[in-house]
User: Fold this.
Amino acid sequence: MKTFLTLFAAAAAFGMAPAAFAQAAVPEATSAKPAAPQPVVAAPSAPGSQAPRDAISASSQASPAQPGEVSAAQTGEKAPSSASVLSSSLARTAPSATVGQPTDAWGFQPQVTPIGQEAAWFHNMILMPLILIITVFVLLLMLYVVVRFRRSANPTPSRTTHNTLLEVLWTLLPVLILVAIAVPSIRLLAHQYSPPKADLTLKVTGNQWYWTYSYPDFGDFEIVSNMLSKDEAQRRGEPRMLAVDERVVVPVGATVKVIVTSADVLHSWGVPAFWVKMDAVPGRLNETWFKTDRPGVYYGQCFELCGARHAYMPIAVEVVPAAQFAAWVASKGGTMPGSPQRTSGDETATSPITNPGAAAAQPAPGTGPTPTGGASGATETTPTPTNITPGTAKSAVSTQGASESKRGSN
Assistant:
């Protein structure tokens, strides 16, 4: 047994020796001062070879510079162009995992609009406490009645048929409960259906099974929004069955009036984080609104059974700063209010029917420039042409059809 323990201790010593040696070598390696990088001499290029076009040379690839070794002057980078600034402003905003989409948390989604915050307060601070109090009170009352008035404890039941205090209480308490619910509820409805002056109008049209959005205040352009596939949504870092190819984009802090309609069957446009849900009825315009001061991406869906692909009609609203919204409008072919309108290249631009202002700009008959050159065609503002050659005295006569047709003759 002693021999076995000796062999076991020797094996343990040999097994721990490499690890101890490695741990002792680590401080020495970290305390040693790193050697200066050796200069790298690029090999001469072969005759006729082309120099690399990018900014990274062979020497920089072999010995990359650290962030602290390169200054702004040494980089030689140019200021970002307007195109790069525009592309960065048009970049899609990444969604938040906790705001604007379904989560595993209890309760409603975090509200980002004034109406949503007021409604969430009404639910959490008024409705839920009252429901809890009523439920607990009724449960305790039933338990008391079951125990207190059981048959064994009351062999002779009471024959009471009237109690004034009890009748007043069970009439007055429900009235007070309804008043406590009605006052904040009516105030919430008043705020919801009395919107402030709108900063922009968004027209929403439901189709089987996609959404179309138009911006009448910004050139009346239109976008079509369809759901992304599962793989494409995962590649973009968005939730499946909620990501779309074309988002609704609105500026932060703007009051958005939403006009909702349908082109075929009943739909319902809603975004839970905005506390907005409005039915889309064919042939009818329904109105709602929202306003949020928090940039981000907020998802919704169709809330009305509309056919086989009802579950594949998601909604995505992107709230961006005003400058980014203006760039997005320009990228879609729209115009901001107050900016010059795009001119039409067709002839109807000067028609008095499509453009009544063009008729006033046309000179009235008889008020134009008076001819001064007789038959030469010269006017006060147009000199006589000098490249006119005299024509022949006899006009040219066509001989087409001069020969008699022989068709049908014997």
Q: What stands out?
A: The chain has a mean pLDDT of 75. Residues 106-148+172-194 form one domain. The beta strands are 200-207, 210-215, 221-225, 248-251, 256-262, 267-271, 276-280, 286-290, 296-302, 314-320.
